[in-house]
Design the sequence.
């Protein structure tokens, strides 16, 4: 998940092949460093150079079935998700997308009803709440 520089929005892609709004992502294609793959894919799909990984830890895992098609049988797809922050807002749409949009968290549901994207948004918001509560407790304790 790529956050805006101020952390108030997430970048969604209108995926060209799937024709729906999703978070950025890609395939490892044999590369072992999944965090670096996530950074590379975010840079390639957004055109943004100044992206930083907020944690080396996997933030979320989504497992979903990919239906059979003419090239391959049905199979499970594993999305390992990281949280990243963009250094600027000036994205460039790649050939993999129809469009990109910085979407405020409260408006994500207007773009997609995909449970995996909504769960990702909700986890970021929950983590922010826990982080704020921890800060407040630390400051008053």
Sequence:
């Amino acid at each position: 998940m790529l956050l805006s520089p101020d952390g108030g929005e997430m970048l969604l892609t209108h995926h060209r092949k799937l024709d729906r709004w999703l978070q950025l992502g890609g395939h490892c294609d044999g590369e072992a460093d999944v965090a670096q793959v996530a950074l590379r894919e975010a840079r390639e799909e957004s055109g943004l150079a100044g992206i930083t990984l907020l944690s080396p830890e996997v933030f979320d895992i989504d497992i979903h079935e990919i239906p059979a098609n003419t090239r391959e049988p049905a199979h499970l797809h594993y999305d390992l998700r990281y949280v990243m922050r963009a250094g600027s807002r000036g994205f460039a749409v790649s050939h993999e997308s129809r469009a990109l949009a910085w979407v405020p968290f409260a408006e994500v549901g207007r773009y997609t009803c995909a449970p995996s994207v909504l769960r990702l948004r909700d986890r970021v918001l929950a983590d922010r709440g826990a982080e704020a509560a921890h800060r407040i407790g630390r400051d008053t304790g």
Observations:
- The chain is about 30% helix and 30% strand.
- The first helix runs from residue 34 to 46.
- Strands lie at 2-3, 9-15, 20-23, 51-53, 60-66, 75-81, 84-86, 97-104.
